[in-house]
Amino acid sequence: MADSVAIQGDQPAVKTPPPKKGKSKNKPEKELSDGLNTMLVIDKEGGDAPTAAGSQKMVLKNPKGTRDFDQKQMAIREKVFRTIIDCFEMHGAETIDTPVFELKETLTNKYGEDSKLIYDLADQGGEILSLRYDLTVPFARYLAMNKISNIKRYHIGKVYRRDQPSTARGRFREFFQCDFDIAGQYDCMLSDAECLLILVQILQKLDIGKFSVKVNHRQVLDAMMEVCGVEKDKFRTICSSIDKLDKTPWDEVRAEMVGQKGLDPAVADRIQTYVVMKSQGDANAFIDQLRNDPLLSKSPTGLEALDQMRQLMSLCGCYGISEFVSFDLSLARGLDYYTGTIFEATLQGEGNAAESVGSIAGGGRYDDLVGSFDPKVSRSGKIPCVGVSVGIERIFAVMEAKLLKEKEKVRTTKTQVYVASAQKNLMEERAKLCRDLYLAGIKTEQSFKMNPKMLDQLQYCESYGIPFALVLGESEIQNKVVKLRDITTRAEELIPRDSLIETIRRKLQETQ
Predict the structure, then answer these.
(1) Which distant-in-sequence residues (6+ apart) come within 8 Å of 448 by Cβ?
(2) How many CB atoms neighbour CB 199 within 10 A?
(3) Rounded distance, CA 228 to CA 222, Å?
(4) Each residue's pLDDT tens digit, 177-201
(5) Distance from C-alpha of 135 to C-alpha of 99, rounded to nearest angstrom
(6) How many C-beta neighbours within 10 Å does residue 176 have?
(7) How far apart are CA 495 and CA 485, in angstroms?
(8) Are the C-beta atoms of residues 111 and 133 closer than 8 Å to each other?
(9) What is the pLDDT of residues 227-282, one digit of tens each?
(10) Which of 77, 128, 365, 459 is spaced 20 to 30 A from 487 at the CA atom?
(11) For residue 405, how many C-alpha atoms fall within 13 Å in the half-sphere facing its CB?
């Protein structure tokens, strides 16, 4: 007997009340993935009879903060990945991979207040492990463990955070990060500027809308907090509060700093005068303004960091990306391992889709992280590192919403040619032609039915966006030709079998 199946939402199943009288109102928006939170409750006992009280049920659902991806979504993701990888490789990056879990001590004391979001694995009587929170700390561990002092690498992999998920904002507990990092002793700001250039190039090629990149310097932030009167042992925790300004009003951030973290209200007010400051077009003028500030001008480390920022902004001008980059003192990035430049990219929204996603990429310089794993590195000198991380899930949320709005058709296969038969009993001839096409490296499909209908075969080509069909019939076989059909224009021509591969390759090249 068939299993009984019921569909329910996030809450336990309840009886649906009768509809109210009057006109119904359709919701103007729906979730990007209709099936994200769908549960299927299957009666294990089956049967048509009512389920007995207390009987066990199997709940089919995604774990909170995760999702499945259908064929169309995966096609979009692969396109995004290919675009990002092409940019990384254009700049000479090599790729590596690391385990999705690390020793817990490897991840300890690296993420500041965000450490509470790390997934710890159950103790199985061996090593104490945690799922990786990002790709940066494992990269630093990899460098220290393998005694590598110079590398330009990219890494695309899943990371895990016990965050509060939000589908609309592209925030999940399991998600991909796409990282590009440069490790090694190099002249000031050249590698930092290249990371910014790569970030801008990726966002331009993805064509997801207008964006901006905010940059700041950790030493400028430290100098700001020092001159404002923040105690040194509170620098990082106050940074974590400032980091919330992109999504939280100042009054709430101030309340957190004063009420929860014990900051003097007068100190918080002095901080406010700085975090509202950012460059408006002319970065040099803004840097001059900061250098002449009565308080910041008294900090030697702050002045040195401002000189570095001047060089960074100059290189952005050389790369032609100054219009996208602004020096913004409100940018803090709460991770403890940053030591120099920090940056973050956000969409400048047309409507709610872009505004709701928030940050789509970020990064910065972390010169001390490798040394924290290897005492010899700390004694002999640092292995400076700088990198950028692209948040693929948030970008995908924007792209998916855009495609849904524009109703753009997405190809889910890469089939180039479909081998069809116009008459019965030609299965073996189809198989021979497919063999020739496979050997030539041409992506090919055919029906798995012995005698498929011609209309069904052509409709399959239209449904999956297959550009060409090769039609076989008795007359074509006798004359050693194949009928080539353009699925879009429906134009047909007879091609000799001995020149078929060459003709198809030429046709495919013309359609690219």
Answers:
(1) none
(2) 27
(3) 10
(4) 999 999 999 988 999 999 999 999 9
(5) 10
(6) 20
(7) 10
(8) yes
(9) 999 998 888 888 888 888 878 899 999 999 999 999 999 999 999 999 888 887 78
(10) 77
(11) 12
